[in-house]
Design brief:
Length: 670
């Protein structure tokens, strides 16, 4: 049997084996309140999986060397045991997920539950809708059309193939210089306000020609107008660099060494690749949220809801521990822990809100008079909800008729025909969203049993401030009976709709979270030449994370002037936030920008300089030396680089404020 025939047979067998888990994972996801895109699952071998990873989750992409490089790196990681790809899923409607045929059943189930949560995030997070808008999303077809178009230009005998490849290189080098905070077709930067022409004001003043000519001569007025026009541009930096180059750019012609108008194929390629940059931007902007969301629901479904069978659980637990235990800034771990904190904080707020309405309990005496052990016991799920099995269905049926926690239709079917509903394997089938929320209420889990007790007095005071019915309940028992067990999950879905990684971290990375999860910052020390823990202060941890998430963790560059020095040269500015550019890489990027502008380009940035004597003194005193920040303007004319001191006014314009991460529009913070 040939390899393709063998693989097709193995793939069919694997698809048959996974048919039930795929169907039931989707059913469970919806029972838990998720609303995913429909997902098409495909079985692939390890080589096809590596190709898909290289192509960013799609089967067809435009011709470029980057895909081969990524494929080779992934293949070597797989070959030498440096990292195995379990799944890949793309943002599309329907979503497409690819499962590796060599995975164990436990791994396949973990991937499927993980994918259902990703598909829910794709469908419901508003940053993704900023690309797709109200139209149907068919990303696979879009990328395939782009690939065919660029391949057509490569094959066109009237177009130099190397010119196409060089142009694609230049554009892809700048693929993250878009304004990801606005829809792709929006007027992202607007037009700079034209400064008022002083000549019009002088005409209104009705000055004599003698006075006007003596005081306001034409040369002076021309210089003033030029200066004010330049200042107007500098006050309106345009962050969508690719969009700006598409509208105003020319290209550099190596033969004539001059700027020439872009060819139609170049404009077309720039449009296509810019559109792809916008498609992938939400995934980069929400990496931690999205992976954490998927890890959270995967864990709940596979472990707590026993979607992993008894003979599969240890394999699954090992799989997840390796994913969550990966070193460095791990988006799965950080994201999952933040989502758990959102859930716990909202559940705690709900319980505290009810307790503060008990006669005799106030925010001042809360920690003294509340019996937290009693509260914990009363928050435990009802035994019939917690212990669903084929042997306990009668206990579930004994609950009051119409109890919102019970799926009465499915329960009736299970009681009348036990073989119709496998309750022992899928106990969630006889429960509703409300029932599952009680069954998995976070504050009764062993790892969070002290979370309610740790609520701070200022939080209690905030809850009490606008509370009018503060003696609504006579007893703690009555108050706990009124607790909404869905509060945490409801809040998580609200947050999922509107946040990106930066706003998510900014809103929920609290001092309590940092301290309880032992987060800290580290940095390279110039005095010792190694890395060390720099701070455990929650504000420092948050700032460091925000800097890593801002603009995909890459420097933010904006167009400040397209006629710098009145010579048609392009002035770019690095929005300096305390992190210095890699100047070698910056020069490489300037070379690419020059190809798309056609004339000299400038980059404003700030460099940190260290005095060797200060470094030596700092080393002896075991501290970090203080750098001097020096404004710098780098100019590239197509052949060589020059460095200039940066004008103080320009240096001020590129400085970012302490909390100006350029990513926190208030309307997105819910």
């Amino acid at each position: 049997m040939s390899r393709p025939d063998r693989f097709r047979r193995v793939a069919r067998e694997e698809a048959d084996r996974l048919e039930e888990p795929v169907e039931e994972a989707a059913n469970l996801a919806r029972k838990l309140g998720l609303d995913p895109y429909p997902v098409n699952y495909w079985i692939v071998d390890h080589d096809e999986m590596n190709q898909l990873i290289a192509y960013g989750g799609f089967q067809t992409r435009y011709p470029h060397w980057r895909w081969g490089m990524t494929y080779d790196r992934q293949r070597k990681q797989d070959q030498f045991g440096m990292g195995k790809a379990f799944e890949i899923v793309n943002n599309d409607d329907p979503s497409h997920a690819f499962l590796q045929e060599s995975n164990s059943l436990a791994d396949q189930k973990a991937v499927i539950t993980h994918v259902e949560a990703h598909a829910d995030f794709f469908r419901n997070n508003e940053w993704f809708s900023r690309f797709s808008g109200d139209g149907d999303l068919d990303a696979a077809a879009m990328l395939e059309r782009h690939a065919e178009t660029i391949q057509r230009y490569v094959d066109d005998p009237d177009i130099d193939q190397e010119a196409v490849e060089r142009f694609v290189d230049a554009v892809t080098c700048l693929e993250d210089t878009i304004d990801q905070h606005h829809p792709i077709d929006a007027d992202r930067d607007g037009e700079p306000t034209e400064p008022e022409d002083l000549r019009e004001r002088l005409d209104e003043m009705d000055l004599s020609e003698t006075v006007q000519g003596a005081v306001f001569d034409d040369e002076w007025l021309d210089e003033l107008a030029a200066a004010e026009a330049a200042a107007a541009d500098l006050d309106h930096p345009r962050t969508d660099v690719l969009g700006f180059l598409r509208e105003h750019g020319t290209v550099y012609d190596p033969e004539s060494k001059e700027a020439v108008e872009m060819e139609s194929w170049q404009k077309d390629i720039l449009d296509l690749l810019r559109r792809e940059a916008y498609y992938f931007a939400p995934q980069k902007m929400t990496k931690t949220m999205n992976e954490g969301w998927a890890a959270y629901w995967e864990s709940l479904m596979m472990g707590e809801e026993r979607f992993a069978g008894r003979d599969e659980f240890l394999t699954y637990a090992d799989h997840q521990s390796r994913v969550l235990g990966s070193p460095g800034l791990n988006p799965y771990k950080l994201g999952k822990e933040l989502w758990e904190y959102v859930e716990n904080a909202e559940n705690r707020r709900e319980v505290a809100d009810k307790l503060l309405r008990v006669e005799g309990i106030t925010w001042r005496n809360f920690h003294d008079v509340v019996d937290f052990d009693e509260v914990q016991d009363r928050l435990e799920p009802h035994p019939a909800i917690d212990g669903v099995s084929s042997e306990t269905l009668s206990d579930l049926a004994a609950l009051p008729e119409g109890d919102p926690r019970v799926d009465w239709e499915t329960l009736d079917r299970a009681l009348s025909d036990p073989e119709a509903v496998d309750v022992d394997r899928y106990p969630w089938k006889v429960l509703t969203y409300e029932g599952l929320a009680e069954r998995h209420f976070s504050l009764v889990k062993p790892q969070y049993r002290g979370f309610l007790r740790r609520i701070r007095r200022e939080k209690l005071e905030q809850l009490s401030r606008y509370m009018f019915d503060d003696e609504k309940y006579d007893t703690v028992e009555a108050a706990i009976a009124d607790v909404d067990r869905t509060a945490g999950w409801d809040r998580m879905r609200e947050v999922r709709e509107s946040h990106n990684d930066v706003t998510f971290v900014d809103a929920f990375l609290s001092p309590e979270f940092v301290e309880s999860n032992n987060y800290f910052t580290y940095e390279y020390t110039r005095s010792t030449g190694d890395f060390r823990v720099a701070s455990v202060d929650p504000d420092d941890v948050k700032k460091k994370l925000l800097l890593q998430f801002t603009n995909f963790g890459k420097p933010t560059i904006a167009v400040f002037d397209d006629n710098f020095g009145n010579r048609g040269e392009l002035l770019l500015g690095h929005r300096y936030n305390g992190v210095m550019l890699d100047l070698d890489q910056a020069q490489d990027v300037l070379e690419r920008v020059h190809e798309l502008w056609g004339r000299p380009v400038h980059l404003m940035t700030i460099r940190k300089e260290y005095d060797e004597h200060d470094v030596e003194v700092a080393r002896r005193r075991n501290r970090e030396p203080e750098p001097t920040e020096v404004g710098l303007r780098i100019r590239y004319d197509g052949e060589s680089f020059e460095e200039f001191d940066l004008d103080p006014d320009l240096e001020r314009r590129i400085q970012a404020a302490d909390v100006d991460y350029d990513t926190k529009p208030d309307e997105w913070l819910s």
